[in-house]
Amino acid sequence: MFELGKKQPLLIVKELDFGVYLGETLNAAIEDRVLLPKKQVPQGSGLGDSVEVFLYKDSKDRIIATTNTPLLSVGEVGKLRVSQVTKIGAFLDWGLEKDVLLPYKEQTAKVQEGDEVLVVIYVDKSSRLAATMKVYRYLQCGSDYQKEDIVRGTVYELRQDMGAFVAVDDRFSALIPARELYGEIKVGDVVSARVSAVKEDGKLDLSLREKAYLQIGKDADKLVALMEQHGGALPFTDKADPELIRAETGMSKNEFKRAVGNLLKNQKIVINSDKICLK
Hints:
The protein is mostly beta strands. The chain is built from 3 helices and 18 strands.
């Protein structure tokens, strides 16, 4: 049985001027043979020899063999470059003569020519090879990372109610919860984050911020910089609405209050009824 999208050994069952036909057995029926073009036939190979090939479909939807190895096989997660964007989706360069399609419905964010996108190769309902950016179920859960480790990963999907889904090392399943998202994060970003929790199933929770006692000083410095940019003051205090604080500073209300407390302790600010001023 042919395995589309994977490498497998097949036998040369017939030789022709334009290539050879391959099958699982020497007496394979015509419908159980696949063409390996002449330029792909290993030098010195002949009838009955085994050849390891990758199977995919050509532009006429026929199964064809190649001795070339694509950058990704079925079920493998990795990054591919967008070579073209068309009306039906984006085509990705995966190292074979025919690019693989990333349909619009399989994109978690709009892609452009030249982008490198994290995808997995799969066989679609029409028995064609395609790519998807929805890699969640293909990622592994058994990493060796522990709580407080610093990791790097690629953001592959954003959901407002849950947060940013990240493939750590482009292999392991992780999430930056919505409450931990700060600044502008988009699909395709490579982020450095701290492991805040390792779930029972091995999936990772991540934080873009350091532990509180380390983060306070950085947050305090950030507030000073913001005040200097706004004429030496912030037009609100720690009693402001949490959403306003987050929008203006990228901090939660508790983080903002800790940073303000640090600045007060160090006598760097004065808090008025409606604003915080630098001394």
